[in-house]
Amino acid sequence: MAHDVFISYSSKDKTVANAVCATLEGRKIRCWIAPRDVPPGLPYAAALVNAINDCKVFVLILSKGSNTSGAVMREVEEAVDSGTPIIPIRIEEIEPTEAMRYYIKSIHWIDAMSPPLQKHLGKLADSVQAILSAGAEEHPPPVAEIVIEAPAKKRWPLPTWATVLLAIAVVVIVGGGIWYASTRLDSTPTAPRNESVAAMGDATAEQPLESTSTPGWGEWRTLSFNIPSETLWRQSGENSYTIIANPSGDTIAWSDEIITGDFIITADVTHTSRLGAAMFIVYGDGIGFSRGCLIAHYGSLTDGRGWAAFEAHSIYEGGDLLAANYGDFYFYEAARVITIEIVGGKASLYADGQKVAFAFLPTEISHAGRIGILHHWEQPVGATYSNIRIKTMAMTND
Q1: CATH code of the domain in which 65 resides
Q2: Which of 85, 112, 138 is the last residue of a domain?
Q3: N or C: which end of the chain has fewer CB within 10 A?
Q4: Strand 259-260 and strand 368-375: pairing?
Q5: Which residue(s) pair with 360 in the sheet?
Q6: Which helix (H) or strand (E) holds 26?
Q7: Same-domain pairing of 130 and 275
Q8: Calpha distance 381→331 (Å, rounded)
Q9: What φ, ψ does residue 202 adopt, rounded to 5°?
Q10: What is the pLDDT of residues 257-309, one digit of tens each?
């Protein structure tokens, strides 16, 4: 049976698993759940492996039972090996075992411990639909291209005098072009195209946000986010989000909308600790670190050094450092205005209007996805993100 979601659970949580399945299928999301969907005559283990490899999203019901289940652990491992996005939904107050934490420590999960359960299942369904929608946008259906070749027009030869005049004009134009290009090369140095790590002198030399005045940009608008857990986050206002507790893994609040193409995002960020950090995920999948996303970091590293950086794909193994600057990048009493600008394949990071890092983006960056506010589990809590606004490149009809 064709399906979008594989539901992994302990047999002790069958009631919750059935509720998850019913909620998703009520949204027209096709689910695979054992034992209902195990084909007759096929070995149980083979059916599970095939179903996991064929699904687009892996939903893990995290409980005391599944936390110590060898069968569930093998299913999670299979999903990780196949590169399938995993959404854990925690239904009991437990911490993942070391084995489980190895696979899901950097993944945002949904806490579903406070009643009613259906409210949390609605968030789960929203997250699943976001992933499926993002996948559909990345792989749109092919468009048939029809090419009609026009018959070649008959060309009449030019007279001799016209041919001579044309040759003289070509010589004048080419010679003038060579002279102009040589003078431009002598007067204007060019930046290396393969520059990947920005030096501080270069980073602060440019006027910030030059592209905001160019045609094609839409209006500024508010960007809203879904907080993943009320025990970890507090929505302190209509456009204000505060991290109040440190989880055992990273936690991410994702934007409601998917952002496509070039954009500029800005936010006022404060922190109760000088050693705190502001971190954003750009073009994310709405779950965690994913291939093609971009991470921006401003603030302290876990060793106390100030750092402004861009990383691709992940902050863990498998990620690529694109730009890194060390300096006086710390939070003080006043808010920092953090701005990320992505224009024409270049990402720039600003703090209070000064460029602190930039990177030329590799081709693997997705350029379509959600914006995430990231809290790394080793960082001190107390960051507040407010007045979050975004401006995107307006669509044009060519």
Answers
A1: 3.40.50.10140
A2: 138
A3: C
A4: antiparallel
A5: 346
A6: helix 14-26
A7: no
A8: 13
A9: -70, -35
A10: 999 999 999 999 999 888 899 999 999 999 889 999 999 999 998 888 899 99
CA dist 385 and 333 (Å) reads 14
Query: How much of the chain, in percent, has pLDDT values that exceed 70?
Result: 78
pLDDT in tens, 179-194: 544 444 343 333 333 3
Could you read off the pLDDT of 119-169 as tens digits, one per residue? 899 889 988 998 888 766 554 444 333 333 333 333 334 455 544 555 555
- Do the domain assignments include residue 120? yes
Query: Pick from 257, 301, 244, 262: which is nearest to 278 by CA?
Result: 301
Q: Domain of residue 87: give its range.
A: 5-138
Q: Are residues 204 and 134 in the same domain?
A: no
Q: Are residues 241 and 387 in the same domain?
A: yes
* Distance from chain centroid for Cα 73: 27
| Three-state secondary structure call for residue 341 | strand
CATH of the domain at 372: 2.60.120.560
110 occurs within a structural domain: yes
Asked whether residue 156 is domain-assigned, the answer is: no
Going by pLDDT thresholds of 50, 70 and 90, the confidence category of residue 238 is confident
Partners of 347 in the β-ladder: 342, 359
**CA–CA dist 121, 129 (Å, integer):** 12
Counting the structural domains of the chain, the total is 2
What is the C-alpha radius of gyration for the chain, rounded to an integer number of angstroms?
26
Q: Are 259 and 347 found together in one domain?
A: yes
Residue-averaged pLDDT of the chain: 81
Please tell me the distance from the alpha carbon of residue 221 to that of residue 391, in angstroms, as a whole number: 7
**Residues 15, 98 within the same domain:** yes
Residue at 303 is within a domain:
yes
**216 & 358 share domain:** yes
The pLDDT assigned to 207 comes to 43
- Same domain (yes/no): 368, 276: yes
CA distance 124 to 136: 19
* 222 vs 150: which has the higher pLDDT: 222
Edge to edge, what strands does the sheet with 31-32 contain?
A: 31-32, 5-8, 57-62, 86-90, 110-111
265: left (phi over 0), alpha (psi -120 to 50) or beta: beta
Q: How remote is the C-alpha of 53 from its chain's centroid? A: 23
Using pLDDT thresholds of 50, 70 and 90, give the confidence band for residue 199: very low
CA–CA dist 267, 335 (Å, integer): 10
